[in-house]
Amino acid sequence: MNWLQIHITVDQAQVELTETLLSSLGAVSVTLDDAENQDLLEPLPGETPLWNKVIVTGIYAQQDDEQLDVAALESFIKLQLPDAPLRSEFLADQVWERTWMDYYEPIQVSDKLWIVPEWLEAPDAEAVNIILDPGLAFGTGNHASTFLCLQWLAQTDLKDKIVIDFGCGSGILAVAALLLGAQKVYATDIDPQAVLATQQNAALNGVEQNLVVELPEQFQAQLQGAQADILVANILAGPLMSLAPEFATLLKAGGEFALAGIIEEQLEDVTAVYSQDFIVRDIAKREETWCRVSGQRKTA
């Protein structure tokens, strides 16, 4: 079997129409990609950001005994989207799951911490290895802000500590904290898929018994007023600033925190908000843009 790919470049406002059109014409899958190398900020949990210009790709199966009428497909698409650039190509059959998996490699966070996709062997069996299914939800360790949080966890004393992972995504930070010695992690996310992914990735690493992960409405009930020793939140600057008062109630006096998902231009605003209840001790950067803010909750 061969596969036909049809690529259509459209404005963001036309993406939904284009997806629907390709699906209605029999596409077995539809994917989206950036058409202009436009950077996107790390999304909020449950959010799917789009570029201004998007390449929408439909994949069609061509059976050996039934040829696709490519010209007819292209003509119909052009009637609906006359101004959208379009190109098509045939691909030889291959194991698509294996192709997707080939994009991932183990990531070394520090001397003692690695992220290892579940189908690969750990490069250092003596290190703390986070076994991860990257396909479940946002958070593979590749993004600068996630990496910054993992680095911070790796250098923080987590032994027997209570940790909160706020906006847990794939659960990579929660799992890392437990593997690095945390006694218990309370994690939350507004996306039910993130809650499921965190549970599954915790199970992959054998730490699910020390993890509580809930949607926000159940999260506070699980805490029952308890406060954490450590809080980590990898979301975005706006939500981080609005959550500062809540974080002050979730973290013990003297407790340590790390915030990421912040770009350099937002640092002044974030640190100003957090200086009311927290002491900002350190600012770290990665890829010249993404920043991590860390410190302690004030004791008085």
Automatic annotation (TrEMBL):
Disulfide bond is among the record's keywords: no
Location(s), subcellular: Cytoplasm
Keywords, alphabetical: Cytoplasm, Methyltransferase, Ribonucleoprotein, Ribosomal protein, S-adenosyl-L-methionine, Transferase
Binding-site list for S-adenosyl-L-methionine: T146, G167, D189, N234
Residue runs in coiled coils: none
Main location group: cytoplasm
Alphabetized Pfam families for the sequence: PrmA (PF06325)
Listed PANTHER family: ELECTRON TRANSFER FLAVOPROTEIN BETA SUBUNIT LYSINE METHYLTRANSFERASE
Family statement drawn from the similarity comment of this UniProt entry: Belongs to the methyltransferase superfamily. PrmA family.
Protein name (record): Ribosomal protein L11 methyltransferase
Organism annotation: Acinetobacter larvae
Phylogenetic placement of the source organism: Bacteria, Pseudomonadati, Pseudomonadota, Gammaproteobacteria, Moraxellales
Gene: prmA
